[in-house]
Amino acid sequence: MATHQALHAQGVSIRKIAKTLSVSRNTVRKYLRDINPPQFKAREYEKQLDKYREEIQDMLDKGYIGTRIHKELVQKGYMGSPSSVHRYLRAFKENDKAAKLATTRVETGPY
Fold first, then answer.
1. Is the CB of residue 94 less than 8 Å from the CB of residue 70?
2. What span, in angstroms and rounded, lies between the C-alpha atoms of 44 and 46?
3. Are 30 and 38 in contact (CB under 8 A)?
4. How far is CA 67 from the centre of its chain?
5. How far does CA 86 lie from the centroid of its chain?
6. Tens place of pLDDT for every residue, the chain, 111 residues?
């Protein structure tokens, strides 16, 4: 990592770097040898509620609230908590708002 290399460039020993960063000396050596430290990426998870997306949209169009949507989904086999449904609905509504706010400008020529 950049921290390892920065400390080593300042003349700090490998042992001291390891102790400061709470990692083993071998790990410090490994990162100092690597020109490009590993790039970690957050894992993408499929949300349980994604498979009910269309049904949720229909329920929102009918004016259902989160608690009612949760009850309906439980009847269809959903095993999650009501708070998970509410979090999903919040994100769902934010994406929907952003889509509605996005406009496309269309220009036509003079008649």
1. no
2. 7
3. no
4. 24
5. 17
6. 567 778 888 888 989 988 888 889 998 888 888 777 666 677 888 888 999 999 999 999 899 999 999 999 999 999 999 999 999 999 877 777 766 676 777 788 887
Give me 104's structure tokens: 């496309």
Task: Tell me the residue ranges of DSSP E strands in 44-102.
Answer: none
106: tokens are 């269309």
Structural tokens at position 84:
């998970």
37 near 31, Cβ under 8 Å?
yes
Q: Write the CA distances from 71 to 33, 62, 66, 86, 94, integer angstroms.
A: 56, 15, 9, 12, 22
Contact 82, 70 (CB under 8 A): yes
Would you say 12 and 4 are in contact if contact means Cβ atoms under 8 Å apart? no
Other CB atoms within a 10 A radius of the CB of residue 94 amount to 10
Backbone angles phi, psi at 104, to 5 degrees: -115, 125
